[in-house]
Amino acid sequence: MAEPTDDIIRAHGLGRQFRGRWAVKDVDLTVGRGEIVGLVGPDGAGKTTLLQLIAAILDPSAGRCTVLGFDSVRESAKITSRIGYMAQGFTLYDRLTVAENIAFAAKARNVSAAQLAARRQQLLAMAGLGPFLHRREGALSGGMRKKLALCANLVHEPPLLLLDEPGLGVDPLSRRELWRMLEAYRRQGATIVFSTSYMDEAELCDRVAFLDAGGIVALGTPAELRARGDGAAFRVVTDDPAAVEGALSGEPDVLGVQWQARDVRFVMWPGREPSSSLRAPFRDLGRVESASPTIEDVFVILTAECNHSGDGDVESPSPAHTRGPMEGTQAQISSQGLTRRFGSFVAVDDVYLDLGSGEIFGLLGANGAGKTTLIRMLCGLLSPSSGAAWVAGIDAVADPQRLRQRIGYMSQRFSLYPDLSVGENLSFFASAYGLDRKAAREAIGWARAVTGLARFEHHTVARLSGAVRQRLGLACAILHRPAVVFLDEPTSGVDPLSRFRFWRLVNALGAAGTTVLVTTHYLEEAAYCHRLGLMHEGRLIAAGDLASLRAELPADVPQTVEAVFIAHIERARTRMPQSESSAS
Amino acid sequence: MRPSRIAAVLEKETKEIVRDPITVAIALIMPILMLFLFGYAISLDVKDIRLGVLDHDRSPASRQLVDEFVDSGYFRLAGSYAAPEEVDGALQRNEVKLVLVVPPRFHERLERGEAAPVQVLVDGTYAASANLAAAYAETIISTFPDAAPPAARVEVRVWYNPALRSANFIVPGLFGVILMAFPPLLTALAITREKESGSIQQIFASPLTSAEFLAGKLVPYGLIAFVQIVTVIAAGFVWFGVPMRGSLGLLLAVGLVYVFTTVGIGLLVSTIANSQVVAMLLALIVALMPSALFSGFLFPIFTMPYASQLYARTLPAGYFVDFSRGLVLKGAGLPELWPSVALLLVYTLIVFALAVWLFRKKVA
Lengths: 584, 364
Fold this sequence. Notes:
The structure holds two protein chains of two kinds. Chain A is α/β, with parallel strands linked by helices.
C-alpha cells in the first residue's frame, strides 16, 4: 500500500500513552522533503513526545509512523542511524572539549576521519566555535553549547533533523546564529522538524503544527494560521497602557493582551467585535483599531478554543488582590560600582543601578553576560569583589541575612521540591521564611489565589507543566510579601499564553509597590517592563525605557526590541577597547 | 558490532573518567582502604578473655587452677570476687566475660580423688566468642590437675590455617566482597548519569547499537575493576602476609571473570534505574549488602538456615569467595574448584544477556 513518495515523515493515528494518559493522540502528519515544520503549543501538549516518536526512540502505543521510508518500530535502527536528533537541554559531554564532542559524534555515526576534518572546520566556522576547539563543553556559554550540539548533529549530514526547543534558554544573538546555521543546512535539501515556544521562530517555518493535549489542532503555513485570527486582533494606541490593560482584563471576550511601547494589543474570540461597553472607557485612553494577527495571537485563540482543561482556566490575578510589601519597608535597589571576579574572569563589571519602588526592570543580555551573577549579588547570595549594593534599605554586602527576609528570589530552575505537592511546597517556604501558623495560612491562601494554584493544591510538582511550576515558583517567592523580587528567566520554555498570564502577575506586583528585577530571553516581553538594562560581557551597557534606548541609536535601526538590543551590543563591542584604553 | 564505534564510546568514556579525578581516586583508594579496615578490624580470634574468679575454697589447688587459666594465654585475670552478687554486677558491667566459680572443699575433694566440680559462667551475649571461651575453659579444667593420661587421646591438627589466623581467612574472602562494592556502583552511575543529563538520547538517536554502547562503557570500568582486584590481591599477600598456595595466574584469570560479573551487575542496575540516586541505592542493595552478608565472607553459608543457603547460592560473590579461599589457602586448582568457576561464568553470561536485552534504545 505504501506508494513511493518523497515524504520524509508519514504518521497515521500516532499515539503514545504514559500511565493511562495520552501524551500524543491520533496524530496524522506528513512532512515532505526539504520542508521545515514547527511544532508549537502549550506546555505539556506533547511536542517532545511527538518528536521522540518520529526519532524512533520511543515506541508508539497506537498508530504507525514511517520516517525516511522506514517503519519507526520494526526498522527503528535504520531511522536512528540516519537522522539528527537534538534533545532539550544540554546533552553533550561537559568534560569533553568542543573537538572531542564533535569527534565522538562523528565516529558514532560512521563519519570517516577525512570527512570529519572537512566538515568540522565548516561547521565550527559557521557556529563561531573555531577559537574554542579545546575548551571543555561545560565551560561554554549556553548559546555556544546549543550551537555545538547542533554541529554534532549535522556532522553526518542527516536528511532529517529533529530539534526539541533548540532556542530554549538561549540569548537572542546566539539564537540568531543558530537559525543561520539551520537555514544554511536546509538549503542543502534537508528536512527539519522542531518544537519551539518562540513565535518568531514559528514564523520562519514552511508549516506550523499547533498541538494541544496531544493532538494537532491546526496545521498550515504561517499565513494560513494567521488568517484564522483575522478580525480578532485589535490594538489601542495609548499613552497609558496600564489603564488600557486594566480596562481589558475584566472582559470575558478578551482572550489575551499584549503590551507594546505605545500601544496595547489584544485578541478577542474570533467573530466577536469589541462591545460598546468595552469601547466606552477607551474614549479617554486611546483609539481602538483592528490589527493584523500574529502567530502569537492565533496561539492565544487556539489555546482558548481548545478550552484547555489543564492550566487554561486559571482565574486571572487582579491588582486588587495583590498585596504589596509590608508597610513601612523600602523597595528601592541601588548599586555602585558592583563588580565580581572569578579568578581573572570579570563576570560583573562596575554596575551602577538605581531602581525605584514598584519599578519593573528587565535585564537583557546574552548567555554569560553576567545577569545571574548580578542578581545573586543583589540577593546577598554572592559577595561582590568590590562595590556596594543597597536593596530594600539594607546593605546587601554587609547584612545579607537580614536582607533575605525582605526579598524574594526565583532562580532559573525554580527551586521547588518536585516530590512534594503544591500545598506542601507552599507551607515549606512559609515556614522557611519564619511565618507563624496564622500568617502562613493567610499568606498561602493569598499567594494561591493570586497565582491561580488553588486547583493544583494536591498535585505533585514533578507532574505539573512548566507553566504551573513557574507560577508556584513565584508564589513561593512572594509568600512573605517581600519588598523586592528577583526573577531569573522566569518564563523560559513557557508557552506564550502562560507567559502573558505570568507577566500580568508581575505587573500587578509592581502596581502594589513591589520592585521587580527580571531577566528574560523573550525580547517581546521587554514591553512589559518599565525600564530595561542591557548587559554585555559583565557591563551594563545601556539602561532606560524602550523609547530612550531607541533614541540613542541611529535612525536607520529598525524599531523592534531585537534590533535595538543587537545594535546596542554591536555599538558596545566597537567601543569597549577604547573605553578600556582610556581607563588605563 | 562495529569495532570503530565501540572504540569511539571507549575513548569518550575513558576521557570522561580521567577528567574526573575524584571518581578515579575513589575507585583506586577505597578498595585498599576497605581491605585495611576489614583486614585489621575483623578478627575472630579469641584472646585475652577477661576472667573473673569467685573462689570459695581459697586453697593451693584453686589458686593453681586460676594460674592454669592465665598461663594458657587465652585468659587474663580481670577480677576476684567474694560473693555471687558481685559476679552478677561484674558480668553486667562487662568487666569480665567468663567467671570461674570454685566451690568450697575443692582442694579437699581433689586430694581424696573425688570428683571436684567447678562452675563456669559465660557471658553469652556474643554467642560465637562465648562458645570458644567455654571450650577453652573446658579443656583447661578437664586436664586439671595433670590427670592420669586417658586411654584414648585426641590430637587435633588444623590444616591450611594452622595458626587459625583470622587474616588468612578474611583477606581471600574480601577479594570477592570489595569487587562487589565499587565496580557495580561505578558502572551503574556511568550510565544513569547519561540518562540524567539527557546525553543518552543522542546515543539512542545514532547508529550505535545497545551492545556497542554497553561494550564501550564496560571496558574502561572493567579495567578499573581489574586494577582494583590486582591491588587488593597484592596488598593482601604483601601486607597481610596471607600465604599463597595456589596459582596466582589462575586467581587473576578467574578474578577477571568475576570483574565482568560485577560490572555486568552494574549494567543490569542501570537498565532499571533512571537516576543516579536510585542506581546507587540499588547497587548497594543488590550487590554490596548481600555479598557482604551471604557470601560466606564472615558467616559460613553451610551454617545458615536452608532458605538462606538457597538465597546465598543465587549470589555470585559466594562462589568467588569459595574459589579464592580454596586456591589461596588450600592450594587447590581447577580440578577441585571448577564448579565454582563454571557457575561464575554462567552467572556472568546471564547477567550480560539480561542487561543487553533490557537496555533498549528507547526513552521509555
